[in-house]
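Let us walk through a complete example step by step. Step one is to write down the protein sequence. Step two is to encode the small molecule, magnesium ion, as a SMILES string so that its atoms and bonds are unambiguous. Step three, shown after the inputs, is the structure prediction itself.
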Amino acid sequence: MLKPNAVKKRVTEITPQFLRDIGADALLLDVDNTLSTHHGTELLEGLPQWIDGMKAAGVPLLLLSNSKEKRVKPFAKKIGLPYISLGLKPLPNGFFKAAKRLKIKKRRLALAGDQIFTDVLGAKLAGVKVILLEPIQPETKWSFKVRRLLEKGLRKKYKTCRKVLK
Ligand SMILES: [Mg+2]
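Step three: the predicted structure of the complex.
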């Protein structure tokens, strides 16, 4: 339940071919520490070009964030993508909503995110594929530090699962 289908460092390493290889037709994107720093407005290096490439290849993208609308909306606007805010990951509801919005079956969807206990667990519970990324920047809040500490051992274990795990 906590094991991702694949592990990558940055979202920009994901290609349309890679998504096809893991059996996904569309990609859901976490925002904080996946596309920018936590609550930051600066974009990950190469992000606009990567989004253009995905769009050109016909891969639908949708932001699925646990953050509030007032954080996600302006960010989504900035990069020109649709969004779902207050996603409540790891609950599966946001994933169901995303599948409905994209009109794509859950098992043909993948999420890219940086947290095991929200992104990976949520995707697994919803029957969505998941690519675990490294957080762009370590968070400073103590609650995050605890979570990251818990993730540490698991990340080490999953480091090698770069291929599809069925
Ligand atoms: Mg995140």
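Step four is interpretation. The longest strand covers residues 109-113.
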